[in-house]
Write a structure and sequence with these properties.
- It is a single chain.
- The chain is mainly alpha-helical.
- It has a domain at 16-50.
- It has three helices and no strands.
- It has helices spanning 18-28, 36-49, 58-70.
- The protein is extended and about 50 Å long.
Length: 75
C-alpha cells in the first residue's frame, strides 16, 4: 500500500503582474518546476534560508533599481 502524501501546507495568494508571471513561465519551461507558483515558492524559501542576509546593501538596491528600470517596471 502506498502511503498518503503529506498534507499540503496552508497557502495564501500573492498577486503579481501578468507580465512577470509570463516571463517566469517562459524561464522555467523545460526545468523541474511544474508551475510558476512552485518556482516562486522555491526562490522565496531559499531567500528566507539565508541566515546572514540583513537586507539589500546600497549597491544591491542600486543594481536592482537599474534592472527594474531597464525592464520598464519603474521610471
Amino acid at each position: 500500500m502506498v502511503p498518503d502524501p503529506p498534507p499540503a501546507e496552508p497557502t495564501v495568494a500573492v498577486r503579481l503582474p501578468e507580465e512577470i508571471v509570463r516571463g517566469l513561465a517562459a524561464r522555467i519551461r523545460g526545468t523541474g518546476f511544474d508551475s510558476v507558483d512552485a518556482f516562486v515558492a522555491f526562490v522565496l524559501a531559499r531567500l528566507l534560508e539565508e541566515t546572514n542576509h540583513e537586507g539589500f546593501s546600497e549597491e544591491d538596491e542600486r543594481r536592482l533599481r537599474e534592472r527594474l528600470r531597464s525592464l520598464g517596471y519603474i521610471d
